[in-house]
Amino acid sequence: MDFINRNINTLIKMIVPIGMIILAFVLLTTVLPFILLLIAVVFGVNFLMKKFSKIRNNVKYNNNKIDIEEVKNEEKVFNGEIIDVEYREVEK
Predict the structure, then answer these.
(1) What pLDDT digit, counting tens, does each position of 5-25 carry?
(2) pLDDT tens digit string along 21-77?
């Protein structure tokens, strides 16, 4: 009887780690694609947010650049003539 008991214990000791390895493999193959998909979605959202922020900042910069060019063009219209304007000083 002792011989049978030893074989069952060693068999159980061999089956448990093999079962754990198989369970880990099954979980990895079923859960890993979802984890990779989640990482891809987070990366994509982060990338798009940076891209839209960069585009928005670039639009503001271009608008300022256009305004500056318009002021320079207005100066060219006057051909460098100085326009005299009457003014009065504001007292505090």
Answers:
(1) 667 778 888 899 999 999 999
(2) 999 999 889 998 999 999 999 999 999 998 888 877 766 666 666 666 655 555 555
Q: pLDDT at position 91, please?
A: 77
The tokens describing 86, both together, are: 């009457």
Rounded CA gap, 56 and 63, in Å?
Answer: 11
Enumerate long-range contacts of 11-20, CB under 8 Å, 24 or more apart. none
In order, the DSSP letters of 17-76 are HHHHHHHHHHHHHHHHHHHHHHHHHHHHHHHHHHHHHHHHHHHHHHHHHHHHHHHHHHHH
